[in-house]
Design goal:
In the N-terminal section; belongs to the phytochrome family. This protein is α+β, with helices and mostly antiparallel strands and 756 residues long.
Amino acid sequence: MNIKDIVNREIVNLTNCEQEPIHIPGSIQPHGFLLAVNITDFNVEFCSGNSYEYIGIKHQDILGKTIDSVFGNETINNLKDYISRDLMLSASLLKLELNSKNFLCTVHKRDNHYIIEAEPASVNEKDISFEYNQTAQLLGYMHDTHTLKELCQLVAEGTRDITGYDRVMIYRFDKDYNGEVYAESVREDLEPFLGLHYPHTDIPKQARELYMQNLLRIITDVDYTPVPIYTIDNGTENNLDLSLSILRSTSPIHVQYLHNMGVGATLTISLIHQKKLWGLIACHHYSPKNLAPDLRLAAQLQGHFITSQIDIRQKNEEYELSLKTASALDKVKDITLTNATSFKELVNSKQLLELCNASGVSVLFNNSVYKSGITPDDEEIKKISSWLSTYTQNGSLHTDKLIDLLPEYKNVCENTSGIIYHSLDIENDNSIIWYRPETVKEINWAGDPNKSIEKDEKGLSPRKSFDLWKEVVKCQSSPWEKPEIDTAANYAYRLQRQINLLVITNEEQKYRKLSELLKETNSELENINWISTHDLQEPLRKIQLVSSRILSTEKNIPEKVEDAIKRMNSSANRMQTLLVDILKYTRLKHEDSNFETVDLTELIKEVVIELHETIEEKEATVNIDVLPQVQGVPFLLKQLFSNLISNSIKYSSPDRKPVVQLSAEKVPVAFNSTNRMLYKLVYVADNGIGFEQEYAESIFNIFTRLHSPLDYKGSGVGLALCKKIVQNHNGYITASGKLGEGAVISIYFPADNDEI
């Protein structure tokens, strides 16, 4: 049987450390030994090379055998019983006797293996009363602290009491995973690290991902010699995923980093909050130090306690802040907008600033700026609002560092480093913006963060200098807290509704005034129309009377004079006809309250009787098919069809006798593809002179004539009057024609629902 180790021998350096496969090193630390058994048959498929040192059995004699064949039935029964419990593996320790020696084992499942990590049970075993004392300690933390920072400080001190490490730090990450020593308990003779910041490069991405999976990591001696893991050589690439392993060998880059810090041993506990790596409990010792597995779990409990309290403490702090902002909101929301003066009153309200603890505020509405407190000038506000309107697509945004978005505004960042922006409409740049000035602050870094990698005679290495390095941060405000952001959004929404109501009210008032003015103007026009047309008819009648009398009584009138008098009389007749038509057109109003059911067949028969003299004179024929019943005003419909039939006869061809055909579609039809209503369609067709199709719409315009008044008498109002009558019946009228052949007028009357 050939046996091989699975040590990962890929060369790792600082140029490729981000891709380092730290979860499969193929080796472990020497303070325990490792077995990996198949989950189905419990056959040992991996074994660390130091098994002989702990149990006196070489790895060659263990690989390929089952647990019971190597350690006996009691061992495998204990292991199976532990695994069968409905608990997360590694949450508790498994006590096993292996080859007559007692071990505390951590067991976890990975892929198709149970990985067993065994450490001697005799190292620093804790007292039986330890659990009670620790529980009492955690309860004490809850009662003795009010803020998260105070709690973290007590946990740092408590963890150092439990573990005995020289330094215990609560390490908190920012949004970019730069770290800050948030709380610390340290040996008195050592330099404190409290408040120092560390760049995100100190903990690479793949290391942070492992901290999310494996909540506890220990290095007992940074100078350890890695122990290889062996497996049976079956000709394939065998790797063992040690992501959840306690004994997993550490990255050589990290070991070098610890050497540079002068650290001899470490214990790291992950702090997970809302499924993200919030921070770490980082324990440092300046000489080798091992910690018994049960004490590690006790230390891990301290970490669990912190993470359980993060939400509570932050919510308490947010609650206090939200009470203050809510109080300001209650006061400012009572200000009602009625005009421009209201905006001035609004921005001058101190509660508008207090609702998100801002130093300035501006409201941009209809290109006017209303502002108070510390703000940019009006033009800068307009530019910022215009840019943010486009950038957010008329949405919202908050930032504590505006120059990250607008680098060109560095000249105004002293007063406007932080903003909360809300658009107040979806078309214009109207907005409300709260402002905060810059908060100049010093950040103490443990070494220059820009020199996280150093070059020496040996090549690239982790930084060696952790001396204090100060960074002065400008053009950044204090961060906006969640209650402030939420309250600002709440008020912006209220303000948007008020502005919409103000706009609607103003528009309503404007349209009401316009409507009243239009009504008054129309009334005046009707009066003027009536007076002018009525008064004009009187002199026309006198002209007609005088001209007729002269022609009938005077003898020997010169031919030219007689012709002039006849033309004057004819013009007066045409003008009188025009005045009558204008009066009819202007007095025609939409009025559906008098609608009744009208049988068009009977109505048109009456019209034909009334026009019998004209019909006989022109020797015309009027054919009437069966026509539908419609809803309308009878006398208007009579006028409609009287005009249409008269027009058809008037514009008859001199080559043939006029024929007028009235017909209808049997079923309702659509007027066009966009109008979903159905209509009863009636045709008035003739065989007259027709017209070019390009004039199909213009012939319905008032005073439009296609022919000389000398050829065809008329005022040019008839078809316009027809169109208005049809419109007043909620219908449509169209025309089609062919020059020299005739014309067809189509009238669409709305169909009743029960007829569709």
